[in-house]
Automatic annotation (TrEMBL):
GO terms for molecular function: endonuclease activity. This is Multidrug efflux protein. SUPFAM superfamilies: Restriction endonuclease-like. Transmembrane segments: none annotated. InterPro entries: DUF559, Endonuclease_DUF559_bact, Restrct_endonuc-II-like. Keywords: Endonuclease, Hydrolase, Nuclease. It comes from Legionella quateirensis. It comes from the Bacteria. Residues 2-106 form the DUF559 domain.
Length: 121
């Protein structure tokens, strides 16, 4: 599975390449993303582990695989991830809107996390 993920990193779609440009090196709000990440028996396009958010960039092939995608999303949610799906054309026509949605989901998730602050006795 790791080898397949490596191959997918080398052969990303144009939309995934564009999306990665904005997510890499903590460019989006300082949040760290990884690409083509193995989670269980799936490979997620982009993952922010800190907020447990997966971003899937979907092309036309996903229209035929709707049932598979629904099960995949359900399985990933069962292990604590949220899945955001974006169409290829949206990455090209409205990247700022996509990035705003990503940030909104991340910030919402981080606001719900319990504070890691430890108080002394």
């Amino acid at each position: 599975m790791q080898e397949l993920a490596r191959n997918r990193r080398k052969n990303q779609t144009d939309a995934e390449i564009r999306m990665w440009y904005y997510l890499r090196n903590r460019r989006l709000g300082g949040h760290k993303f990884v690409r083509e990440q193995v989670i269980g028996h799936y490979i997620a396009d982009f993952v922010c582990r800190e907020s447990k958010l997966i971003i899937e960039v979907d092309g036309g092939q996903h229209m035929a695989a709707e049932a598979y995608d629904q099960q995949r999303t359900k399985d990933l949610e069962a292990v604590g991830y949220r899945v955001m799906r974006v169409w290829n054309n949206e990455v090209f026509s409205n990247i700022q809107g996509v990035l705003d949605r990503v940030l909104s989901l991340i910030e919402g998730a981080l606001d719900k996390k319990p504070s890691s602050c430890v108080t002394g006795t």
